[in-house]
Design goal:
TIM Barrel, globular, 2 domains, 16 strands, single chain, 15 helices, alpha/beta
Length: 468
Amino acid sequence: MIHQYINNGYHIVLDVNSGSVHSVDALLYDAVEVLAKIVPDMEKPMPLTDDQKKAVREALVCKYSEEDIEDALSDIQELIDAEELFAADIYKDYVIDFKKRQTVVKALCLHIAHDCNLACKYCFAEEGEYHGRRALMSFEVGKKALDFLIANSGNRINLEVDFFGGEPLMNWNVVKQLVEYGRSQEKEHNKKFRFTLTTNGVLLNDEIMEFCNREMSNVVLSLDGRPEVNDRMRPFRNGKGSYELIVPKFQKFAKSRGEKDYFVRGTFTRNNLDFGNDVLHYADLGFEKLSMEPVVAAPEEPYSIREEDLPQIMDEYDRLAKEFVKRQKEGRGFKFFHFMLDLSQGPCVAKRLSGCGSGTEYLAVTPWGDLYPCHQFVGNEEFLLGNVDTGVVNTKVRDEFKLCNVYAKEKCKNCFARFYCSGGCAANSFNFHGSITDAYDIGCEMQKKRIECAIMIRAALAEDEENN
């Protein structure tokens, strides 16, 4: 399967099955475009047929010289022989074993606090309550959650625990106790905990920063960008904006972490479709690791992203990508999460095909110890898997998540992005279509654009390195 596009003047050819990316000239791009309509994926490299070569010559003879066309055909054959063009899908039979695979839990999202000191207007957690009542996780429940993770992690050594909310710092003493408990169990069970924390920053202080710098492998700092954007969507409950309070704290925190192992993460809505300006605002504040996610909200919400917004959003990603390249070349670059694309086929096959592992390898734990597939399913009793005392008892739902992969989703089967997005978010799919094996269409379009931009950036920076 071939995907081609032109972005910022770069002619990109992506061989989807092999993951090979080629930045080519216009002739080679046009030749591949002709062949993509008539050459199937090859189980093994084969020479182009005379008819296939003839089709290229006839299509391009009025535009390019015969000699140049022959050179292009020769280059294409070399790529085919190297299994970097028209390659076979080597993963399609792998998913047969997914349901049979032993379930090994490797990560928990601990809802340490179902409470929050902000009133973010788009919050799916309803100010931290998750369709229920306000609550803080006790140390006893958290301890059982860590014990559950250790007991169900099999031979996996590295385990991940994310302190989430609501606002985790509203239950800070329990966070510290659980980190201490986790560390005390590492040697005995041959495990290594990687703790992370997501915070709105309101309660950040020097003691918390020092502890996080020592114990948290990563922290996510929630901020929506420019003051007027942030304060419109992330106010306190009395309506006052939060920007002025939290930005200095975040700047101090990021600096104290050596400008690494953190992300400033925002959410953009229909109110700021020029979200690239918010990302650049982060960078201008001195932050270097950035993320900006599209809001996922019911269509009737005034701030929800709609299909008619997509052209503007696509243009905004293109604009941001060009500015990303420009700043990188000027020596004032930053990292943007959605442009950090792994082109080396690094993640394991299961991750490429099924994504985050929600419902199987990754679970969310409520303050009462209930287990859900992920934080976005919390409060939906249909997806209650069990609790930290019983473990997973709703194996029917767990098995449905086991089969949630790019080959189970009709919309993914012929999508060039499938091995990069891994089928997208199961929660978004369910919320918009009622099935975890569908796909959230608006999210798909944005993801495809981000991938195209990320590949263009790699091509542009590689060209710059060659020229210097």
